[in-house]
Amino acid sequence: FARIFFRNCIATGEVYPLESEQRLSREIETGEPVELDLTAGTLRRVRTRQTYQLRPSGETIRVIASGGLFEYARRTGLVGAGEATR
Question: Region 53-70: what's the mean pLDDT?
Protein backbone atom coordinates (compact mmCIF):
# COMPACT_ATOMS: atom_id res chain seq x y z
CA PHE A 1 0.00 0.00 0.00
CA ALA A 2 1.06 3.60 -0.53
CA ARG A 3 1.77 5.15 2.87
CA ILE A 4 -0.91 7.85 2.56
CA PHE A 5 -3.58 5.31 1.57
CA PHE A 6 -2.60 3.07 4.50
CA ARG A 7 -2.75 5.98 6.98
CA ASN A 8 -6.12 7.17 5.65
CA CYS A 9 -7.56 3.67 5.97
CA ILE A 10 -6.52 3.53 9.61
CA ALA A 11 -7.59 7.09 10.40
CA THR A 12 -11.11 6.73 9.01
CA GLY A 13 -11.68 3.15 10.18
CA GLU A 14 -13.65 2.46 7.01
CA VAL A 15 -11.23 0.21 5.11
CA TYR A 16 -8.94 -2.31 6.75
CA PRO A 17 -5.55 -2.48 5.04
CA LEU A 18 -4.81 -6.17 5.47
CA GLU A 19 -2.13 -8.15 3.69
CA SER A 20 -1.41 -11.82 3.18
CA GLU A 21 1.54 -13.80 1.94
CA GLN A 22 -0.61 -15.34 -0.81
CA ARG A 23 -1.95 -13.39 -3.76
CA LEU A 24 -5.61 -13.70 -2.81
CA SER A 25 -6.89 -12.17 -6.04
CA ARG A 26 -5.77 -15.42 -7.70
CA GLU A 27 -7.41 -17.56 -5.02
CA ILE A 28 -10.76 -15.86 -4.33
CA GLU A 29 -13.34 -14.85 -6.93
CA THR A 30 -14.96 -11.42 -6.92
CA GLY A 31 -18.16 -11.57 -4.88
CA GLU A 32 -17.21 -14.82 -3.15
CA PRO A 33 -18.20 -14.80 0.55
CA VAL A 34 -15.34 -14.78 3.04
CA GLU A 35 -15.07 -14.52 6.81
CA LEU A 36 -12.54 -12.18 8.34
CA ASP A 37 -11.27 -12.75 11.88
CA LEU A 38 -9.22 -9.71 12.91
CA THR A 39 -8.36 -11.21 16.29
CA ALA A 40 -6.92 -14.40 14.78
CA GLY A 41 -5.58 -12.57 11.73
CA THR A 42 -7.23 -14.93 9.25
CA LEU A 43 -9.44 -14.81 6.18
CA ARG A 44 -11.53 -17.90 5.40
CA ARG A 45 -13.33 -18.77 2.17
CA VAL A 46 -16.85 -19.81 3.10
CA ARG A 47 -17.32 -22.18 0.13
CA THR A 48 -14.08 -24.16 0.46
CA ARG A 49 -13.35 -23.46 4.15
CA GLN A 50 -9.75 -22.70 3.19
CA THR A 51 -8.08 -20.32 5.63
CA TYR A 52 -5.37 -17.79 4.83
CA GLN A 53 -3.09 -16.23 7.41
CA LEU A 54 -2.90 -12.43 7.30
CA ARG A 55 0.14 -10.38 8.19
CA PRO A 56 0.00 -8.89 11.69
CA SER A 57 -1.63 -5.46 11.89
CA GLY A 58 0.46 -4.40 14.87
CA GLU A 59 -0.69 -1.41 16.85
CA THR A 60 -3.13 -0.33 14.14
CA ILE A 61 -5.61 -3.01 15.19
CA ARG A 62 -6.56 -0.95 18.27
CA VAL A 63 -7.32 2.09 16.10
CA ILE A 64 -9.37 -0.02 13.69
CA ALA A 65 -11.26 -1.68 16.56
CA SER A 66 -12.16 1.77 17.92
CA GLY A 67 -13.67 2.82 14.61
CA GLY A 68 -10.92 5.13 13.47
CA LEU A 69 -8.28 7.53 14.69
CA PHE A 70 -10.59 10.15 16.18
CA GLU A 71 -12.62 7.66 18.19
CA TYR A 72 -9.41 5.98 19.35
CA ALA A 73 -8.06 9.36 20.47
CA ARG A 74 -11.28 10.07 22.42
CA ARG A 75 -11.30 6.66 24.08
CA THR A 76 -7.66 6.85 25.12
CA GLY A 77 -7.85 10.43 26.36
CA LEU A 78 -5.67 11.94 23.65
CA VAL A 79 -8.49 14.41 22.92
CA GLY A 80 -11.54 15.42 24.91
CA ALA A 81 -14.91 13.93 24.13
CA GLY A 82 -16.87 16.80 22.65
CA GLU A 83 -15.16 19.64 24.53
CA ALA A 84 -15.90 23.08 23.17
CA THR A 85 -12.94 25.13 21.98
CA ARG A 86 -12.48 28.67 23.25
Answer: 84
